[in-house]
Design goal:
By secondary structure, this protein is an alpha+beta fold. The protein has 21 helices and 31 strands.
């Protein structure tokens, strides 16, 4: 029997090696004879490449090669292709211009790679790269998505007229139009969801070994090993079996390391071409101009209501900045995924959404923690707040009047998805109770006497976890499946190895997956090994993103554990001279039901491998595999609240308290889940108050290109967080009852914090400040020097 299974706050078993500096990241791997790559990147946001002169660089000592897009073309290296394609409202496929790993003819964003300089040492490669001569002809650049759609805007791609990639639409526009025509009140908002930089602790890195005969080994800091193996093999025209992709320890990913990058193709190709290992380790400055970025939406949203504050219809029009190219899932985030969340927790009879994806001379955007969910939550919850102010209702009350009741579950939303379960009113009520919402007025008055502006804000959210089922995602344009596979091997001594296609980059998989096995098989987690990240070892899987690890990967483990138990029953029945139908299993012990005759799993495993006596017709060994493809999304939900003070003389915000109630279904490890939620809150606080990726609008230079210019939240910015879980509504369609938790904080926090800021400054006549709410923006809004447009209400 084990006491470290599901529900136990077990300390993460993977942490000791990291605390002792014993982790193994790509940069820690050194191969005999390895070469080092430095990429020469465009200083222009938009330019023609007239000529690349690598003669001087090639002559430098220790230089093995200077490679360009022309060399890749000569070797017939294919373009990078997105793994999700969107269809426009008129039925036309999205524009999908080719993206080359090394630019061919034109560069379209600052930092785009134009040449690879490869040498015996990194200093030699850097010196040679400085000698490379590139003749550019600068072209006009466009940074803003709305500006890119104007007739006179510079055109990035011939195949994308007007710089439009797609015009996506979802919902019933006719029903929405009718509802607006009969509405008593309409709230309208223009909102910006600011562009963000992921900035994980470990910069991206790639190492390829092409020296082995017939097989390329690619070491990569990625969340999705099998996806990267697939796309690189397709570009190099290799069988997938010709590439082994190993993702060792990964120092944070946040979604942006789950996408395909040029460096993966460049390094793999160069290693095969040179028949030597080649390594590229991104510097922090380099990653600022080469890593995918997140968000960057401009939205006009309208909410129609009756006289009592009931939602009648919602209309959302979003222009999404895709950057210079369509990234791996870049088109799906602001369209299929974002739109599906715009019903939120509310009964809104009619919804219509339009999302336009636009090319600009910026880095591509793609998934960043939350990936469409925070953007949807922000739009909907801001509208709910403004509707409450317009009608003179309490902000909690207007939500209560419109929430989907628990008895309506399962509930099909007018925008498409069906929520399988959830008690939204209960979650909100519990949040307001633990945050003492009723006592806020008194606290605000006390703060006012100290000349502080005090605000309380909250946000309710739903989150789609798992990106499933695969058939549903592929029908919407996905070019990959989203199932997960797992293998369990019970060793002769009863210890367990589990191999799974997900990958850990900070979530604690080695602990939580082991806890699932411990609960199912009765094996202590100290005797369980979790193996991920090596495509030659683990079964095919989709990797880790979209809050899918437990709900999908954990369910695959649960399913294969059931197979192990069933086979074990047959072996135990043979040993106990009983029928397999009479064998029960619990806490690692097989027994004849109703008797004290029993045999432990370790003995069954020993017999399965050393068969002195064994059932006839049964395969030896005790291992099996399973694939799990969810029948639907696992719908997490929750409510977050924030209380803060603003110094009216400086606009500085001090977050005093933060409370959250999250329904993530069955909680495998409360301590790990709480840590995941706190991490998401930190990133959400960063988006709300300080993080902002800014480009110069004239020439497309990245102005926030270092931590001197891009402000991340510090530990001192974080408040005490009170986190509560509600497990009363487990997911009904997966064996664990689990839902996702990894993105909850990043969904709820930005909106809750903005809600609190606007509550604090509303008495001064300020009703809207665009993200991020920096002290400067708040101060200017208060004192009117740069007053933003106010909410338009009718």
């Amino acid at each position: 029997m084990t006491n470290d299974g599901i529900g136990a706050s077990v300390r993460r078993v993977e942490d000791p090696k990291f605390l002792r500096g014993l982790g193994c990241f790509v940069a820690d791997i050194t191969l005999s004879g390895e070469l080092h790559c430095v990429l020469v990147r465009s200083p222009h946001a938009h330019a023609l490449i007239r000529k690349i002169d690598g003669a001087s660089a090639t002559k430098q000592p220790g230089v093995a090669a200077v490679l360009t897009g022309a060399d890749m073309a000569a070797d017939d290296v294919g373009p990078m292709a997105p793994l999700w394609a969107i269809t426009s409202a008129d039925g036309k496929p999205m524009a999908e211009p080719p993206r080359w790993a090394l630019a061919r003819g034109t560069v379209r964003h600052v930092g785009e790679a134009v040449a690879a300089v490869i040498a015996e040492t990194l200093p030699l490669a850097r010196e040679a790269a400085d000698l490379l001569q590139v003749d550019y002809e600068p072209l006009p650049a466009v940074i803003d998505a709305k500006a890119a759609m104007r007739q006179d805007a510079p055109q990035l791609h011939e195949t994308a007229p007007g710089n439009v990639c797609f015009r996506f639409a979802r919902g019933d526009e006719a029903a929405v139009r009718k509802a607006f025509g009969s509405a008593d009140r309409v709230v309208r908002l223009d909102l910006v969801n600011n562009r963000l930089i992921g900035a994980a602790i470990e910069p991206r890195a790639v190492l390829a070994d092409g020296s082995a005969t017939g097989k390329l080994t690619l070491y990569c800091a990625t969340q999705v090993p099998h996806h990267i193996r697939r796309v690189v093999s397709e570009q190099l025209h290799l069988a997938q079996t010709a590439i082994r992709l190993v993702a060792p320890d990964v120092g944070g990913g946040f979604g942006y390391k789950g996408k395909h990058y040029p460096e993966e193709t460049i390094i793999a190709w160069a290693a095969r071409r040179l028949r030597r290992p080649v390594k590229w380790i991104g510097t922090r400055s380099e990653c600022f101009i080469s890593d995918n970025q997140g968000r960057d939406h401009q939205t006009h949203a309208e909410l129609a209501l009756d006289s009592e504050g009931h939602f009648l219809a919602l209309r959302v029009d979003t222009i999404a900045n895709l950057g210079a190219y369509v990234s791996t899932f870049g088109a799906a985030i602001p369209s299929a995924i974002y739109s599906a969340l715009l019903a939120g927790v509310y009964r809104t009879p009619a919804i219509a959404v339009q999302s336009i994806g636009v090319f600009t001379n910026t880095l591509p955007t793609d998934a960043y923690r939350g990936a469409g969910r925070p953007e949807a939550c922000y739009v909907l919850e801001r509208l709910a707040d403004e509707a409450a102010y317009l009608l003179g209702l309490d902000r909690a009350e207007i939500r209560r009047r419109n929430m989907i009741p628990v008895e309506a579950m399962p509930y099909k939303t007018p925008i498409g998805p069906t929520y399988d379960c959830g008690n939204f009113p209960k979650i909100l009520s519990r949040l307001l109770d633990i945050a003492n919402y009723d006592g806020f007025t008194e606290r605000r008055d006390i703060a006012a006497r100290a000349k502080k502006l005090r605000g309380f804000g909250f946000a309710c959210y739903v989150e789609s976890s798992g990106v499933a089922p695969s058939r549903f995602a592929t029908a919407l344009g996905a070019r990959v499946g989203f199932f997960e596979a797992a293998t369990i091997r019970v060793q002769p001594d009863g210890s367990v190895q589990a191999l799974i296609g997900t990958h850990n980059h900070g979530q604690g998989h080695a602990t939580t997956f082991a806890q699932i096995i411990a609960s199912r098989l009765g094996v202590p987690i100290s005797e369980i090994e979790i193996i991920e990240g090596d495509t030659d070892q683990v079964p095919f899987g989709s990797g880790t993103f979209g809050s899918r690890s437990i709900a999908v990967g954990g369910s695959a483990i649960d399913r294969v554990a059931a197979k192990i138990i069933e086979k074990g029953k047959r072996i135990a029945a043979h040993l106990l001279e009983a029928s397999a139908e009479d064998i029960a299993f619990a806490d690692g012990v097989f027994s004849i039901a109703g008797t004290d005759r029993r045999v432990e799993l370790s003995e069954v495993a020993r017999v399965a491998h050393i068969p002195t006596s064994y059932p006839s017709g049964l395969e030896l060994g005790l291992q099996d595999s399973a694939v799990y493809d969810p029948p639907g999304f696992a719908w997490s939900n929750g409510a977050h609240a924030c209380e803060l003070e603003i110094d009216r003389d400086t606009g500085e915000v001090c977050v005093i308290g933060y409370w959250c109630v999250d329904d993530v279904g069955t909680v495998i490890n409360p301590m790990i889940v709480e840590g995941q939620i706190q991490g998401g809150i930190a990133q959400g606080l960063g988006q709300a108050l300080c993080e902002h990726c800014v480009y110069d609008t004239e020439n497309g230079q990245l102005l926030s290109g270092s931590f001197m210019d891009y402000a991340l939240p510090r530990a001192s910015d974080m408040p005490k967080i009170v986190s509560v879980f509600d497990e009363s509504q487990p997911c009904p369609h997966n064996p664990l009852g689990a839902k996702g938790c990894g993105e909850a904080g990043s969904i709820g926090a930005p909106t809750a914090i903005v809600s609190a800021v606007l509550e604090a400054v509303r008495p001064l006549g300020v009703t809207n400040i665009q993200l991020p709410l920096t002290p400067e923006r708040i101060w200017n809004a208060i004192y009117g020097t740069r007053r933003t447009s106010k909410t338009i209400s009718t």
